Task: structure prediction
Amino acid sequence: MTPPYSKGLHEVADGVFAYLQPDGGWGWSNAGLVVDGDASLLVDTLFDLRLTGEMLDTMRRTTPAAARIDTLVNTHANGDHCFGNELVGDARIIASRAGAEEMSDAPPEVLGGFVQAAPELGELGEYVTSIFGPFTFEGITLTPPTDTFEGTLELTVGDRPVRLFELGPAHTRGDVVVHLPDERVVFTGDLLFHGGHPVVWAGPVANWIAACDRIVALDATTVVPGHGPVTDNGAVLDLKAYLEYLTAEARLRYEAGLSPIEAAREISLDDYESWGEAERLVVNVTALYRDFGGDPPSDVVTMFTQMAELARAT
Result:
């Protein structure tokens, strides 16, 4: 049974939980918990210490095994999936090697400084405040993984087998999914945004399309996305179709000489009008232009400025 999309901890299989944060937009990520006896594995932390602390308190009230987290898996390097790591800092923390290397690229003090500077940034600042203002980045100590892997890693939680698959680079350079084969559950990290537009920070997009196929091939009946409600493989196939559609549409405009933001203004999103964060389209088109051999500006300020412009226009 698919749990309701409400904030908090939801059991999606025996001893397997999804922690959900509606509405799933910028920073409002999901996490997971796997327990067996006294053993526990946490899938991701949250964007700041307050939110992560609330999540851990909820988990401890629900199951004694969460009193001490044995293992934490970070599915990727974005702060909304790892900035709370210090609160389980005595756990074994695992990420892909590429994901671990990427964590230092945008530490909490940089993001906090971006938010603090927002009042001086005009329209860009208003946008940054609207998406990151609810979170507190001060006082966070970036806590990196203790263990890394490449490819596949087999774990156990008590007697439960857990498999980690590195499927990046796609959303980021080191995306990982967490698969529980016996329970037919998969935690996708941000390789699945359900109900919102994805954002291609790394690419290539073809890798993300291939990752969708890999996720579907796991034959899970319960799919916990990085953002949005718990779902099934239908949502993964919807995302794959979106990426394939966007690839074809962006290719036409790349060959016509349009800039990424000009292309983003032109591409119809009628089939995805219910998805949130449509302004991310310009980041995704920029990533595709890189895939096509172009070299469009893709620094953080340019990307967020263009997203702010698109958000204002919608």
Observations:
- The CA atoms of residues 176 and 312 lie 33 Å apart.
- The two ends are 35 Å apart (CA to CA).
